[in-house]
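Long-time lurker, first post.

We've been arguing in lab meeting about whether flavin-adenine dinucleotide would sit comfortably in this protein at all. Half the group thinks yes, half thinks no, and nobody has a model to point at. So I'm putting the question to the forum: if I give you the sequence and the SMILES, can you give me back a predicted structure of the complex? Inputs are below. Any interpretation is welcome too.
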Amino acid sequence: MYDVCVTGGGAAGMMCAVTAAKKGLSVLLIEKNEKLGKKLFITGKGRCNFTNCCDPDVFFANVISNPKFLYSAFYDFSSYDCISFFEESGLRSKTERGGRVFPASDKSSDVIKVLEKELRRLGVCIRLNTEVKELILSGESGEKTCKGVVLQGNERVMARHTVIATGGISYPSTGSTGDGFRFAGQAGLEMTALRPGLVPLCTKEAFVKDMQGLSLKNAEVRFFKGKEGSLIHKDFGEMLFTHFGISGPVILSASSLIGEDIKDGNVLVEIDLKPALTYEQLDKRLVRELTEGGKKTFKNILKNLLPSSAVPVFISLTGCDPDKPCNEVSKKERHSLRNLLKCLSLTVTGPVGTDEAIITRGGVSVKEIDPSTMKAKKIKGLYFIGEVLDTDALTGGFNLQIAWSTAVKCGRNMT
Ligand SMILES: Cc1cc2nc3c(=O)[nH]c(=O)nc-3n(C[C@H](O)[C@H](O)[C@H](O)COP(=O)(O)OP(=O)(O)OC[C@H]3O[C@@H](n4cnc5c(N)ncnc54)[C@H](O)[C@@H]3O)c2cc1C
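Top reply:
Settle the argument with this. Predicted structure of the protein with flavin-adenine dinucleotide, as tokens:
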């Protein structure tokens, strides 16, 4: 019999176990993988952007689903508290562009090490390679109590408080296979539809494949929907071409912000590769390049205007002979190049699968959860934290902050 049994040794589960153990509670942390924090390890391209150094208004502006639900949790354990927690636990950090906070070592494994060290120091009992199969529930509906969990092999673990921190369904190889949603169903809790968030987009045009790996640092990206082509979203920043379509920060954010429109396809994307120049200014620049180019070939001049992997694609799209001398390029061909640089159009067919999404949107409905304790309102002794909940945010360290804040809120309020 434990005071607290936490299912899921990811970001939220480890932080909750640490917080509860600090209060002197006996804690068991159960993880089905052979090690803790498998998803945490791959975050931030292996560098782990573990929070965002920002004030509450910035944090809440970056939360897409149910920011109000997170008020209490975030004010209790803000980004600043998170940075202090890790610094005090021995992890030096650094803040980069846009407030993104990383370990100074650039190693996500250091974040995991610090949490593991705390778990050991506080005497948390850890069971690896152990899968929770179901909840132990007793009582009639309306007065149900969760008494613990059943493990593989039918072993029963009893606890006064049962915390579910099993994550979502994206990147299932990390262990996040949606088991927590099954547990919520067993407890009769309402769920909202699961869908991919912060996910790359597939496009119809085959030529993107020829530009795969090409990253544009300062592109303006516009999204249009439906027959009338009304503008539904616009952003500026970094994007990337892949073998199936487009990705990178601007695209991932759009996939969450306008996910409902994107999921049925029929969305047109326009990429402006020269957003700092108007059509007129760009035309003047092209005239200058082509005039100064003289007898140089069209393809050579394009290298001054575009990253090299984009040159063959633009040659093919303009239809201009690549070996034509610059001073023979016609006005029509020049305008075609200008229009493509200002407006490269792609048709989005939909997001790549949930498996490859950075985050799972949807989950246990926040209506079912008390935001001041993370306890299921209908069930005594049962709590949900982290990505299993219907909350999600944009990139920048905000999703991990949701995991930390909900975990601390839960751990601090258990007695
Ligand atoms: C590629 C990638 C990069 C990312 N980068 C960032 C980033 O830089 N910054 C950021 O803020 N967010 C990032 N995220 C999002 C972030 O990783 C998640 O928001 C966060 O990990 C959620 O934490 P969690 O503890 O709720 O769930 P998870 O980290 O998914 O942990 C859940 C754990 O529960 C275990 N589990 C599941 N079912 C059971 C069961 N039945 N029994 C026992 N154990 C079980 C799993 O094995 C897993 O270890 C990234 C996500 C991905 C996929």
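For your lab meeting: The mean pLDDT is 95. The radius of gyration is 25 Å. Whichever side wins, do check it experimentally.
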